[in-house]
Structures are given as structure tokens and as C-alpha cells.
């Protein structure tokens, strides 16, 4: 494949989309949320169980492209065991990553990822989600990786921290 | 990969595709460092130099508002604008240029009929569409239904993607259908619908018939009289012309009885604060300053298409579509959606294990432009049991090399994912 696409379709993303670790549903979820993209018919549903103010487990059912499935799976991985407040903060950081202004000097994911790996103090790390950051160079696809976060937002909408 | 275009003769023979391609400046662009392979003409076609130049020339040398000025420049511009009406009438074999109404696009043309003719319909009457309509020929009728209590009926398609003519006949039986509004060619399946038969059955049941010719008018000669149509719409930008200009043709007697759609300048005969009277058709339906330059550009596009000729265009596209179907059949895991009796240059497909978004992005990185998603036909996708497809659509400039590059790249994408 051509260079920049290789960045977007990082091996980790493709592998994760093919063999998601957190796909499925939970028998008795405490929270549920759904994200839909009416333009393309993609959909993610999240099932979440809580322990106090912590997320204990997340499972997702995703009908979508490789980026969407990988994003949902990485979300589930990153947020399992997370406090609700932190989960929201990770979401905010993820969104910020997607809309970060283009740096013309920054041509590879690796360079950009450095900033993500070393976030300023007080900002939660994105954990294993760095490969997704290449999406910011593909504006048309941002919606694909946001979908699971839309579902999370819906799931958390009625929970007070 | 074979990158040498000149060595390959087009299968169609008659049309000199390379000579055609040379007239489209954009086709020599590169995308992501690759030659641009454009396979999204169904969404909007590229423009030949004559169209681009004609519009620029109009603005450089011959432009003023029309129908208003008493001066030379306005009169010449009005003539150029009105001449296109005659051209479009000939293009559609319409009985009169006065039956040609300029709109912004096909969507607006259909909305015009839905509002204007729709306002004459009564609860108890029905509009009949098909399962394979573009949203442009669905939403305006849904809105009419919700506004006026008219029933909206949907004729099913077969699994092959043809209109189910038996079911269509049954939906007409009770005589309540006032208008059949149907695509002349599906933008997803490529299905060319049997327009004459659709129209005959509609008329037997006392219904009028509108064809959405947005796709069809690009690929074959359109004769609204031979089709037995009452209304026909198309859109300039798919016909190698500019955006912002579309066409509604309607039978004079119908247009005369229909109330205006939009109100404003140019569409009136006399105005007082108490009451106004309307201009005659077509002006009754053309409120405000129209897309003057775009209309003139549409005239250039039609001239250009006619200089190539629909015999050559249709033969080329048919041969190319057959070639593409054959090539795509060899791509592992690829499934073409639908197998209609008559197909224009549109092929939707799915590929096992690879989502259309991923396909489209990876094709794009290789310079290839296709469309992925629901193609403004969400109910059709549901009917087909699909969430999204990838669509390659062809134009007069598409050649076998484009198809070869597509098929080869698809095979590599599949390897990448599987
Ligand atoms: C079958 C069909 N109908 C209607 C339209 C709408 O055309 P426009 O957006 O120019 O109004 C399209 C274009 O996508 C189409 O393919």
C-alpha cells in the first residue's frame, strides 16, 4: 500500500479490527450507549458495568470499518477499570487529538505520537490508542473513530460522578 | 501494473477514449503522487475544457443580468441563456422549449413538482415511487405526504435489482395513484428501468409519471415523448456541465395548470400589493436571477456530448461496464450488488472482510476516487440487506486502464486485510 495509508492502517489497527478483544455484550450492563453514522450506516453499541464510580467492564458490538472497530476495542481496553471522571477526560483528550491543528513539519505518525505519549501534566494518557492518531490526517475518516466515543458519551450522559 | 494507456485499445472501438480524455484537464492531475483515476462520475462528472472555457468566456465577454436590461449586453446574455432552453428541448426531444424549466439541480426540479403539482393533490390520492430511489426522489414526496395527507406507496424491486413489474401493477390497481415518480436509472444498482412500460401502466391507471433522469440522461439518448413521460428531470453537473443548473421538463398543459413554486422577480406578469398574476411557463417557475453562467455552461456541455454522440457514448460505456464486471469478478471476495436486466455504467460492490470506508480510503491513497457508503439511498441499502457499498461509476472518459488499476488495487487491499 501507499505510504500514508500505511500510517493510517497501522498493523496494530488492522490486527485489532480483525481480532477484537472486547467485542460482544455483557449480560447485565449498568450502562448502554450507541453511536450511529447515518451517512454510512455504521454503528457501535457499548455495554458497561460499574463498580461504584469505576468502570469494571466494557464490551462493544460494532458494525463498521476497520478504524471504527479498532477504535471501539481500544476504547474498551483503555477504559476498563477507569474512574468515570477519568473516562470523560480520556474522551476529551481523544477528541482534542483528532482536531489538533496540522503541523506541516509533522509528517509521520511517530512524530505526532510523541506529543501524545508525553502529555502535559494532569492530562490522562491515551494508552494504546496512539495508532489511531493518524486519522487526523484523514479528515473524512475522523467520524469513524469518534463513533465509539459518541456511544460512551450517551452511556455516561445520565451518570453523575 | 500496466501504466501505459496508449498501448491499450478501448474495447468499444468507435469512441477514441484517449482523445476524449485529453479534453478533460483534471484527468492529468496526480493525487497522492499517483495518476488520478476517477471512478465517481455518478456523483458528479468532470468537465471538458470547452465547458470551462465557455463559462469563463461568458463572464469575460458577454455577461449581464437577463430579461431586464434594455441594453445590448443584457440582450445578448438573455439570448445566450434562452438559446440553451432550445438546446435542452432538442436534447430531450421535448415538444417545446417553453416546457423546459431551469432549476438548481434535479433535487430542486423534483421538489418543484412535489410542491406545485402536489398542492393540487388531495387526501385519498397517492404518489408511487420505487425502493431504489435516491433520497432526492423520496424525501420531497414524504414531505408532501406529511403536509397534505397524500399516501406514499413504494414499489418493490427484485433481488436482481429490477423493478418488480407485477407488484408495480398491483399498486396501481385501485386507481388512487395520481403520480408515479420513478428513477430512470439507479445510482446504486445501475438499473435502467423500463420507462415506457412504467409510463404506459401508469397512464392506464390514470396516473401521471415523472422520471428522475439524473443518471440516465448522461448515458443514453433521452426522448421524453418516446418514453411517454409527463415530467423528466436531470442535473447539469452529472452531464459534464457545471453545478447549480438542473432541468425540469413537463408537459405544457400540466405546467400551465400548476401554481408557481417560488415567488419573486421574473416570475410575475403584474404585481400590486393586493394581487399578482403569474408569467407564462417556463418563467412562472423561474423566480429570481437564475444561474446564468451555469446555464450557458450547460449549453456547452450538451453541445459537447452531442458532438460525441450517444451512440458512441452508450457503446463505450456498455463495453466498459461489461469489461469491469468481468475484471471485478476476478477479485477474490468481491461481490457485485444486483444483476439488473439493463445496467448503465454504475457498479456497486462489497468485499468480504473489508468495509467500504477502508476500501475507499485505501483506493484514494492510490489515486483512485470511488464512492463508499449509502449513496443517498438508505432504504435501498436496507432492502438489499447491506449497510454500505463501494461504488465505481463510469463516464465517457473512463477507460479500461482505469478498470485495470481498480481491480489490481482492490486485490492488493484484500491481501492487506485478509
Ligand atoms: C438517481 C439520482 N437522483 C437524483 C440525484 C440528485 O442530483 P442533484 O444532487 O444534482 O440534485 C442524484 C445525484 O446524486 C441521483 O443519482
From TrEMBL, chain A:
<dbReference type="GO" id="GO:0051536">
    <property type="term" value="F:iron-sulfur cluster binding"/>
</dbReference>
<dbReference type="Pfam" id="PF01592">
    <property type="entry name" value="NifU_N"/>
</dbReference>
<dbReference type="GO" id="GO:0016226">
    <property type="term" value="P:iron-sulfur cluster assembly"/>
</dbReference>
<dbReference type="GO" id="GO:0005506">
    <property type="term" value="F:iron ion binding"/>
</dbReference>
<feature type="domain" description="NIF system FeS cluster assembly NifU N-terminal">
    <location>
        <begin position="9"/>
        <end position="92"/>
    </location>
</feature>
<protein>
    <submittedName>
        <fullName>Iron-sulfur cluster assembly scaffold protein</fullName>
    </submittedName>
</protein>
<dbReference type="InterPro" id="IPR002871">
    <property type="entry name" value="NIF_FeS_clus_asmbl_NifU_N"/>
</dbReference>
From TrEMBL, chain B:
<dbReference type="GO" id="GO:0030170">
    <property type="term" value="F:pyridoxal phosphate binding"/>
</dbReference>
<protein>
    <recommendedName>
        <fullName>cysteine desulfurase</fullName>
        <ecNumber>2.8.1.7</ecNumber>
    </recommendedName>
</protein>
<dbReference type="InterPro" id="IPR015421">
    <property type="entry name" value="PyrdxlP-dep_Trfase_major"/>
</dbReference>
<dbReference type="InterPro" id="IPR010970">
    <property type="entry name" value="Cys_dSase_SufS"/>
</dbReference>
<dbReference type="InterPro" id="IPR015422">
    <property type="entry name" value="PyrdxlP-dep_Trfase_small"/>
</dbReference>
<dbReference type="GO" id="GO:0031071">
    <property type="term" value="F:cysteine desulfurase activity"/>
</dbReference>
<dbReference type="GO" id="GO:0006534">
    <property type="term" value="P:cysteine metabolic process"/>
</dbReference>
<comment type="similarity">
    <text>Belongs to the class-V pyridoxal-phosphate-dependent aminotransferase family. Csd subfamily.</text>
</comment>
<dbReference type="Pfam" id="PF00266">
    <property type="entry name" value="Aminotran_5"/>
</dbReference>
<dbReference type="InterPro" id="IPR000192">
    <property type="entry name" value="Aminotrans_V_dom"/>
</dbReference>
<feature type="domain" description="Aminotransferase class V">
    <location>
        <begin position="37"/>
        <end position="406"/>
    </location>
</feature>
<keyword id="KW-0808">Transferase</keyword>
<keyword id="KW-0663">Pyridoxal phosphate</keyword>
<dbReference type="InterPro" id="IPR015424">
    <property type="entry name" value="PyrdxlP-dep_Trfase"/>
</dbReference>
